[in-house]
Amino acid sequence: MTHDTMSDHALPEPAPAHDSGRQHPIGLYLKVWAYLFVLSTLSYLVDYFQVHGVTRWTLIIVFMLLKAGLIVSIFMHMAWERLSLVYAILVPPLVLLVLVRIMIVESDYTFWTRIIFLGGGG
Fold first, then answer.
1. Virtual CA dihedral for 101, 105, 111, 114, nearest 10 degrees?
2. Does residue 114 contact residue 121 with C-beta atoms inside 8 Å?
3. 108-121 CB burial, b ≥16 within 10 A, e <16
4. For residue 19, how far is the Cα from the chain centroid?
5. Gap between the terminal Cα atoms of the chain
6. Which of 92, 72, 88, 90 is nearest to 80 (CA)?
């Protein structure tokens, strides 16, 4: 083979790194911004109407988780990722939350065991 024939069979050049994904319509991002605005407004209304107790914290946490879910899924493009990547990112924090919950139950058990059998001594 000569040098001329070798250049005819060269591999194509790879695409530039910035040209790796498809563009999403601007309307999708505007809808998400509107949803985030509505959820933030609802979160502030909880304080404005002076909701108290468990209801207050439940509403605030629900609104916070909904906003975080929208941001992660749309703005961080998690909605278009492979399921294995989504699992790799979301499962470890969920496992940690389960372990923290188990530790809370265990600490309550230890506390009440000390109160009952040791007379409150620690």
1. -140
2. yes
3. eeeeeeeeeeeeee
4. 26
5. 86
6. 72
Mean pLDDT per 10-residue run, the chain (122 residues)? 53 51 83 96 96 95 94 87 85 95 95 87 57
Its pTM stands at 0.61
Whole-number Å distance between alpha carbons of 97 and 102: 9
CA nearest neighbour of 46 among 55, 35, 37, 36: 55
SS3 47: helix
Our separate counts of H helices and E strands in the chain read 4, 0
27 with 3: CB under 8 angstroms?
no
Domain ranges of the chain: 1-80, 82-122
The pLDDT score that the predictor gives to residue 31 is: 95
The tokens for 35 are 């949803």
